């Protein structure tokens, strides 16, 4: 079975298509006018603590301070017997936070200190220590098999942290799980290094732009080709692949053909029909 990824970049939006045997299977669209902030990680600084609301406002470099509720504080920050947020946080304190809800109207972003980094198959939680599963994976023997693989990988590679196994991971081999977890570990190492060197109220990680995200989520060894019609996006994909998925570099091609890239395999017609 032949399989290709086509990536089309315009000033207004970026689109990616997964094509199998010449037939469109999946399409992804990201518009420049609105790119959400959910998943971004910031080095924040507490500017107000509100004991009555059991919450704090945290400056993260956006127009409005983010809102961090006690229920979204990781348990490692909650010493035994500390039930009030005023006993845990103080004004001026610096901490890593992640956006779980975009700013809306006059409200700032909703924040958490329970950090997580997703890939196609797994969600890595650097501050946790357990393995959890998507509810859609119902086969108990498959859960036990995957858990055994992950525990072995983490022991051999001396990895710390917890993992959520996503539905797409069902049936993966040990090697495929290992590759995905190593990728997430590299991302976390980049985040911690960036956070060490960053000033407070700055972004230290944001979810990948669409061209890179589809490589992260859809690339596998059986993929035949990745065609990108933007030189800037092509370079971005190559930089990412070189750092995290070197085997993908051989499949990436800067498409410069006369026909629009989405006219290949009639992808544009299929999108309009859908």
Provide a quick synopsis of the model:
The chain has helices at 140-156, 174-197, 210-218, 231-244, 267-273, and strands at 3-9, 13-20, 23-31, 41-50, 55-59, 66-69, 94-101, 110-112, 117-118, 122-125, 131-133, 162-165, 202-205, 225-228, 252-254. With 274 residues, it is of the alpha+beta class.
Which descriptors apply to this entry?
single chain, 274 residues, alpha+beta, five-stranded mixed beta sheet, five-stranded mixed beta barrel, 5 helices, 15 strands, 26% helix
Protein described:
The structure is a single chain. By secondary structure, the protein is an alpha+beta fold. It has helices at residues 140-156, 174-197, 210-218, 231-244, 267-273; strands spanning 3-9, 13-20, 23-31, 41-50, 55-59, 66-69, 94-101, 110-112, 117-118, 122-125, 131-133, 162-165, 202-205, 225-228, 252-254. Helices cover 26% and strands 28% of the residues.
Looking across the biggest beta sheet, what order are the strands in?
A: 3-2-1-14-15
Order of helices and strands: EEEEEEEEEEEHEHEHEHEH
How many strands, which pairing sense, and closed or not: the largest β-sheet?
5 strands, mixed
- The portion of residues forming beta strands comes to 25-35%
Distance between the termini: 23 Å
Give the integer mean of the pLDDT values.
92
- The helix fraction, in percent, is 25-40%
Q: Compute the CA-based radius of gyration.
A: 21 Å
